[in-house]
């Protein structure tokens, strides 16, 4: 006997298709070259979601493989031998052997992707074209546009050093994130001691599974960073506060010890579709609950819509994880 699957449907949103001519940006090429040539980079900047709060970031990088990244929720330190991830809310940290892949994975998400080219990871995964220059504080800033499926970024660089100073990231034709640098130093003197992780007095060292096992995050960018640092996939629960089946799924599955054990393989992300409309639109969410398993870069590996029973949910999840 088949079990009934419950969903709540969203109204379909018509989106006009736009043809994008394949072009090449000389500004983007200059930007990548400038990052590749720089021996060190220090920057502080703000990231604002439209309709949301403004968050502060600080990034210090030094070749060949040193990084210190301070975000609102976490600190990531790559000292050349290991990468340390510190969760501010949990006051806990874990360490992993450093690899080139793990280092480049730290630059997942709109808030950090601009700096990945410093270590040779290009941000362009789509089409690029030059944009008209923009004036900022009396200086002209050349720009380039990066277009890929479902998203677009407009990036403006300094005409003096061709390093990014401002960017706007759009998802599904809705502006979602604006990045503005507050300070920028290229090729300054940065001692290697800057990349030595110093644990706060009340912090504890744990393993990656213990830190993330029962923790839900609400930011896609944060989930990507945690997944990259822990070499995990991302589980996403697209839900709404008014959705009855969503509450049933929460009560019958997410609160159980069985589900929490999946934290050894997954980062848990909860997206309220009413509060994060741009994210829901980018993943084309039409009904709740929708659950997805994503790769660490946010691409969809598997998805299911609705909720019928714990057995049906675990059957899908185990299949998505190859269990």
Kindly describe this structure.
- By secondary structure, the chain is of the alpha+beta class.
- It has two domains: 26-195, Lipoprotein localisation LolA/LolB/LppX (outer membrane lipoprotein receptor (LolB), chain A); 207-320, Glutaredoxin (3-Layer(aba) Sandwich).
- Helix content is 20%, strand content 38%.
- The chain has eight helices and 19 strands.
- The chain has helices spanning 26-37, 100-105, 208-212, 220-230, 244-254, 257-260, 277-282, 310-320, and strands spanning 8-9, 40-49, 54-62, 66-70, 74-78, 82-87, 92-97, 127-136, 139-148, 151-157, 164-171, 174-186, 204-205, 216-217, 233-239, 266-272, 287-288, 290-294, 300-305.
- The protein has a twelve-stranded mixed sheet. A five-stranded mixed sheet has the order 14-16-15-18-19, with helices on both faces. Strands 1-17 form a two-stranded antiparallel sheet.
- Strand 3 (54-62) and strand 4 (66-70) form a beta hairpin.
- The longest helix is centred in the N-terminal third of the chain and has 12 residues, at 26-37.
- The chain is globular, with a radius of gyration of 21 Å.
- It starts with 7 loop residues before the first strand and ends with a helix.
- 37% of the residues are buried.
- Mean pLDDT is 84; it is low at 6-23.
């Amino acid at each position: 006997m088949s079990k009934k699957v419950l969903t709540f449907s969203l109204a379909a949103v018509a989106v006009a298709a736009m043809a994008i001519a394949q072009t090449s940006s000389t500004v983007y090429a200059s930007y990548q070259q400038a990052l590749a040539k720089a021996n060190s980079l220090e920057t502080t900047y703000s990231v604002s979601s439209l309709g949301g709060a403004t968050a502060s970031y600080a990034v210090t990088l030094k070749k060949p493989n040193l990084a210190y990244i301070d975000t609102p929720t976490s600190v990531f330190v790559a000292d050349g031998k290991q990468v340390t991830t510190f969760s501010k809310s949990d006051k806990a940290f874990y360490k992993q052997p450093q690899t080139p892949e793990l280092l480049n994975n730290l630059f997942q998400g709109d808030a950090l992707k601009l700096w990945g080219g410093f270590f040779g990871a290009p941000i362009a995964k789509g089409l690029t074209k030059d944009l008209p220059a923009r004036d900022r504080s009396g200086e002209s800033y050349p720009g380039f546009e990066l277009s890929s499926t479902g998203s677009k970024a407009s990036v403006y660089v300094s005409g003096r050093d061709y390093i990014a100073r401002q960017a706007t990231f759009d998802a599904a034709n809705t502006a979602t994130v604006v990045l503005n640098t507050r300070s920028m130093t290229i090729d300054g003197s940065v001692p290697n001691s800057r990349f030595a992780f110093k644990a706060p007095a009340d912090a504890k060292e744990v393993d990656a599974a213990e830190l993330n096992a029962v923790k839900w995050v609400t930011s896609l960018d944060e989930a990507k960073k945690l997944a990259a640092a822990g070499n995990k996939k991302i589980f996403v629960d697209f839900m709404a506060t008014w959705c009855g089946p969503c509450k049933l799924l929460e009560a019958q599955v997410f609160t159980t010890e069985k589900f929490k054990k999946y934290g050894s393989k997954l980062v848990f992300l909860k997206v309220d579709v009413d509060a994060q409309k741009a994210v829901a639109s980018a993943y084309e969410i039409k009904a709740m609950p929708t659950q997805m398993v994503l790769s660490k870069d946010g691409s969809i590996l598997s998805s299911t819509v609705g909720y019928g029973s714990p057995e049906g949910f675990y059957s899908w999840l185990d299949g998505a994880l190859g269990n």
